[in-house]
Amino acid sequence: MQPQDLIRKKRDGQALDGAEIAAFVHGIVEGSVSQGQIGAFTMAVYLNGMSAAERIALSLAMRDSGRVLDWSSIPIEPGRIIDKHSSGGVGDEKITLLVVPLAAACGVYVPNLSGWGLDYCGGEIDMLDSVPGYNGAPPPDKFMQAVAETGGAIIGPTPDLAPADAKIFKVRDVTATVESVALITGSIMSKKLASAPRGLVITVGSGSGAYMATVDDARELAESMSEVAAGAGVASVMLLTDLDAVLGTAVGAAVEMIETVDFLTGRYRDARVTDLVLSVTAEMVVLAGLADDVTAARHIADARLADGSAADRFARMVSALGGPADFVDRPAHYLEPAAIVRPVFADEAGYVARMNAKEIGLTLVALGGGRKRPEDPIDHAVGLTDFCQIGDALNDDKPICVIHARNEAEWERAAARVRASVEIAAAPPAPLPPIVIDRIERRP
Question: Residue 408: pLDDT band by 50, 70, 90 thresholds?
């Protein structure tokens, strides 16, 4: 069957079988399927969706488009290989950089394949790319060695692991098909499954700072990924999270690296970030068989955070992939600063009632710290720090945030957008809901 025949079939609302999907994905990688045909296929999927069987077949075909890691020769217990992922959100990308070393300190092995940011949500690899010498795309064997030696490693897309995803993603970005649940599922799960974990914990955010606008949207995506994980023989836990405000206090590559180090070393820990990090880590510890329940696992994670074990693991992880050995001791020495670093104040005193986190993410993009296309370069130095939280009292001494910009003109434009993104009220608002809204567990 020719690619156009499969496209026509999907266009007309018919289901594709596993062999048809595998053949189409194989054609994408080898070059016999054109970009135009990829675009037509993604639009057909966007309009007509995919059944659970189709989504499983798509994810596995994309996984199998490259190398699938084989841990049998690595001296670690296979059942303790557990990965973590986030569907994206403003300020959310730092969670992976916190969870991976903390889970490793608890005895979990975490082979984490992450990505770069796109649109208003940042990426874990953008943060790590701001660290001099860090290699976010090592050969698979180097990646596996780093996981075995340090307990975890975080890398970005490589030509070896799920290469079909990069080809499909670039076309989705320019064909208005990014939002398809089936295609999001295939993109995320193919990369996760390529590292061959025995369990997965995935956070799926909703709200103004997330790709999923509503809880129902987040639940649909979580259920889809959960079904694919089970179909691939992998246990999973999906945590639905509230991202209707900036998560943490920093947005931007280098400034979030500072926030990451501050958190791990105990200099400052935002309450909602702490809750989410411990929740995700606890689920990973249970999936790895290192605790009987999440309550016991959370106590273990809390202890490893408090005793400095997680900070030590992070330092070793950075060093293992080429970063400075003393990065955790003096991150500011290695990270490029912005030329203008100055607070922005609200036009009136009052309490932070709500914020448009998406607009705040787009402010970072406008500063040069985010990208609209996957191939765009970004400025690692710019960003926002000390960002206010819902319920904070703002006045002449308490700013909305501190803007890190390249010049005065960019600072002024960013300040105007930030002010417009935050709503001030005379009275304190109701508190935000818990960071974890719901939980979906599925085992094969």
Answer: very high
Select from 406, 388, 405 the least CA-distant residue to 397: 388
How far from 153 is each of 131, 290, 368, 371, 436, CA to CA, in Å? 15, 20, 27, 24, 25
- Looking at 1.20.970.10, 1.20.1050.10, 3.40.50.2300, 1.10.3720.10, the CATH number of the domain 3-49 comes to 1.20.970.10
Decide: helix, strand or coil at residue 113.
strand
45's enclosing H/E stretch is helix 35-48
Enumerate the active-site residues. 85, 165, 172, 187, 191
* Sign of the C-alpha dihedral computed for residues 431, 432, 434 and 435 taken in this order: negative
List alpha helices for 232-367, DSSP H: 253-265, 271-287, 294-306, 309-320, 331-334, 357-367
Measured distance CA(83)–CA(65) in Å, rounded: 20
Angle of helix 253-265 relative to helix 309-320, nearest 10 degrees, comes to 140
Sign of the alpha-carbon torsion through 229, 231, 232, 234? positive
Q: Report the Cα 44 to chain-centroid distance in Å.
A: 27
User: Do the domains at 78-331+436-442 and 336-425 have one common CATH topology?
Assistant: no
Q: CB of 385 within 8 A of CB of 401? A: yes
- In degrees, rounded to 5, the angle at the alpha carbon of residue 80 between the alpha carbons of residues 74 and 81 is 65
Cα Rg of the chain (Å, integer): 21
Domain ranges of the chain: 3-49, 78-331+436-442, 336-425
**What's the one-letter identity of residue 19?**
A
Q: Tell me the fold of 78-331+436-442.
A: Pyrimidine Nucleoside Phosphorylase; Chain A, domain 2 (3.40.1030)
pTM summary value: 0.94
pLDDT in tens, 92-120: 999 999 999 999 999 999 999 987 776 77
C-alpha–C-alpha distance, residues 312 and 328, integer Å:
8
* Contact present, 45 and 120 (Cβ < 8 Å): no
Q: How confident is the model at residue 166 (pLDDT cuts 50, 70, 90)?
A: confident
CB 389 within 8 A of CB 431: no
At the top level of CATH, the class of 336-425 is: alpha beta
Closest CA to 288 of 84, 93, 433, 113: 84
